[in-house]
Structure formats: C-alpha cells, structure tokens
Amino acid sequence: MTRLSPANVSSLGLCLLLFLFLLPTLCVAADSCSTGACHADMSGVKFGHMPVADGECSSCHEQILEAHPVAEGKSFRLVEQGAALCYQCHDSYGKMLTVHPPVADGECTFCHNPHGSNAGPKLLPVADDLKELCTQCHDEGMFNQQFVHGPAASGACTQCHNPHQANQPRLLKKSVRNTCTGCHTDIGDGLATAPVIHAAVEEASCLTCHNPHSAPAAKLLQKDVESVCLECHGDVGRKAQRAKVKHAALYREEKCTGCHTAHFSNNDGLLFLKEQDVCFTCHGKNDYHKSNALKNIAAQVEGKPYLHGPLEDGQCSACHQPHGSDYFRMLNGPYPETFYYPYTSGSYDFCLGCHDSNMLRFESTSIYTEFRNGKQNLHFLHVANQYKGRTCRACHEPHASNIDKLMNEVGAEFGEWNVPVRFNKTETGGSCSPGCHQNYAYDRENPVSYER
C-alpha cells in the first residue's frame, strides 16, 4: 500500500476546503439567470430563444459592474447594439431590393421577443394569425371590406410576404403573378398554355383588377365587374351606354363575364367559347314560358346545308354588334326595320357592305344579279319599287336555309302571318308562288313573258 507524504496530505486537504467554499457559487452559476429568483419569468416559455433555454445569457449580455443587481442603473449590457447583436447568430438582412423598415432600422425586437414567447414560434408575440402583429403598423382597414382574401382573413401574411426583405416590391416573396398563381394553380396553368392572355395580366399585374387583402366586390375585385372592365375598355362602355338597341346580356348579373373570361382563353376576344357557341348559349334555347323569348337561332341553323357566309365562319359579330348598336337587331349598319322599305342610298348599307349595291341600282342588267328575267333586274323590281319596296328578309333567311340563296322556307313575319315564298330553282332561273302574288317564273336566258 502506497503511503502519502505529509506534503501530499496538506495539498489534498487544501483542495477539499477550496471546493467546499466555492460549491454554492458553482451551483448558482449552473442554474443560470433565468432559473433564479430574478428572471424566472424567462424560463418555461413554450417557445424559448435557444441561448435562454441553454442558460447562455452571456451570448447576448456582458457584466459591466461587479455587483448584481444594483440599486440604480444596470450591471449588464448587450454585447452588440441593434441588429448587430442578432446577426452574431442569424443571417444578416438589408441587401435586397425591399427591406422591412424595422429590419432596416435594426429593430428586431419590434416584432420578436428576444427571450421567448408563449404565443407563437419565431419568438413572435402572436400565434398563427399575424394580423395583430402586422396591424401595429399597417392599416387594419385593409382587412375590413366585404370580401376578404383567405390568407388575409387567417392572418397568414407571410404566405405572400417575406417579413424581413425581398427582391420584389411590397416584400413579396415572388412576383405578383407568381405569388398569386402559387395558390391559384388553375389560372397559372392556363396562363402558361392559352394562346390569348388578358393584357391586364400579361402587361400589368393581378393588382390591376384585384385587391390582395379585401375588396368591396366578389372575386376581390377593386369595384364591380363592369366598372373594373371599363377602367380600360371605356370605349366599349361609352358605346354600350349610347346604343339605341341594347344587348340585354350586358345588364345581367354576370355583366362582361357572361361572355368573356377574365384571365385567358383559347378564343379571340377572351370569349369563354368560340364566338358562335357563346351566342348560342342564349340564342339556342326554347324559352316557351317567356312571352319575349329569344329566337332559337341554333335550332334554325342546325342541319341546314346553306349557311350565310359569316355564320359559316362562326362570326356572328360580322353582322351584329355584341355590345349594342344604333340599328335594328344590333346590326352593324343601316337596315330597315319595317317589312316595306324602298331602296334609297344608305338605307341598306348593312347588307351592301358585302353584297354589290348595283343589283339595287339598275333596272336592267346582265351582270349584277342572277335574279333577273333576261335583263330585267328582279331585285330592283322587288326592293327599289317606290310603292312597296320589300326588305331582303321578305325572301331570304339571314342565317341558314335548306334552299340555295338562303331562300325563305317558313316565310317572313308580316304582322301575325309568315308570308310563304315557295321558291323553286332551275338551271337558268326559277319560280316562286309566294303569299304576296301569283306564281311567277323567270329565266335569264329565255325570258318569260309576263303579258296576259
């Protein structure tokens, strides 16, 4: 057995006395500031700052006076001031295009509690709903209109905004369009593939029409649909307002969106279907219960071998103004509303925009019309007759027919009667036995004599 020398025994005894003397001090130090009697409120929080949780108070604070606590003043100070203190551990901010003012001013504690929080993560004084925190600076009125955006309603401000800094205006994480399509993926997919994009989306931003927080109109529109559209399409609005013949579709609840999509389309004019199909959504029904029901144009056209040229191309707007017109049946130009209307210059300009006006100007011709008996111009006879000149629709269908030249089958409306035409075509002419006169034939090569 090894025996200790007197010197070793003395050294061991001295060490033991020193340990016993310092033991209380060592125990207090191990407990740290937040577990002591003074700062106990900083411990046990639900979300604690890591240095506090680890008892590393000196990571942020340094003692400047020997005594602690002191009667006046402070015996500790921060090791760095402002954001520089936080940047000892956290990445620094302030180098991007847009910096949140509290960050730019180094006021991290304006939003964060430096020791901990029982409310929410990231040392914030609130939980998931950040509105209470953000509206300390930002106007809470932006959330109080009738229709509130989902993220705004739930206080998910950081779904769209970066709270520290961003390379986009308004602290957005991405561009306005990409921010919106991050959730509205159906619109994003359409914008990526559709051939026709609304200029307001392509050249401006979603904020041209929508308020991102809350709005007075559905779909978060800045105003009602019509007013939003007319901000850019004022010419259309003025035309519709002045029009003598109104298009009823413009005054339904859907307004512009009854025919147009707001963001993108596969069709010109941002129509939600091809032009003719859009028109037939209204003009393709049998509303027998209505006294003023629209005509079912789709039924009139279906299965007919002869279509009016514009209709064959699906272009209703070649003849009709979709937003209103000064002319009968919203036509693009002058055309008589009455059954009888002798031709005069300008009175049939709508039809004569495509058809040769000479067929109504010359009593005798061999070239301007096929509706002639020899050289006798029967168009001139029927339409330019100063006593009872008849409009085109007395004999012709405007949309489609089972008979060549769009000849009328059912007959034109003449008060309560539909006047039949009963037209038969031949190689060089034809005949008709209408309700307005006896049977007459005509022939371009071998004129028929009308003498009795």
Outline, from the CA principal axes? rod-shaped
> How many beta-strand runs?
19
Strand order of the largest sheet: 17-18-19
Sheet/helix structural class: alpha+beta
Would you tell me the overall average pLDDT?
90
Secondary structure elements and pairings:
Elements: H1 6-31, E1 47-48, H2 50-53, E2 61-63, E3 76-78, H3 83-86, E4 98-99, H4 101-104, E5 116-117, H5 131-134, E6 147-148, H6 150-153, E7 165-166, H7 176-183, H8 185-193, E8 196-197, H9 199-202, E9 214-215, H10 225-230, H11 234-242, E10 264-265, H12 275-280, H13 297-301, E11 306-307, H14 309-312, H15 349-352, E12 372-373, E13 376-377, H16 378-383, E14 400-401, E15 412-414, E16 417-419, E17 423-425, E18 429-432, E19 440-443
Antiparallel strand pairs: 1-5, 2-3, 4-7, 6-9, 8-10, 11-14, 12-13, 15-16, 17-18, 18-19
Note down, in words, how this protein is organized.
With 452 residues, the protein is α+β, with helices and mostly antiparallel strands. Among the domains are: 47-140, no CATH class; 333-452, no CATH class. Helix content is 24%, strand content 10%. The chain is built from 16 helices and 19 strands. It has helices at 6-31, 50-53, 83-86, 101-104, 131-134, 150-153, 176-183, 185-193, 199-202, 225-230, 234-242, 275-280, 297-301, 309-312, 349-352, 378-383, and strands spanning 47-48, 61-63, 76-78, 98-99, 116-117, 147-148, 165-166, 196-197, 214-215, 264-265, 306-307, 372-373, 376-377, 400-401, 412-414, 417-419, 423-425, 429-432, 440-443. Strands 17-18-19 form a three-stranded antiparallel sheet, with no helix packed on it. β17 and β18 form a beta hairpin. α7 (176-183) crosses α8. The longest helix is centred in the N-terminal third of the chain and has 26 residues, at 6-31. The chain is rod-shaped and about 140 Å long. The N and C termini lie far apart (162 Å). Mean pLDDT is 90; it is low at 12-30.
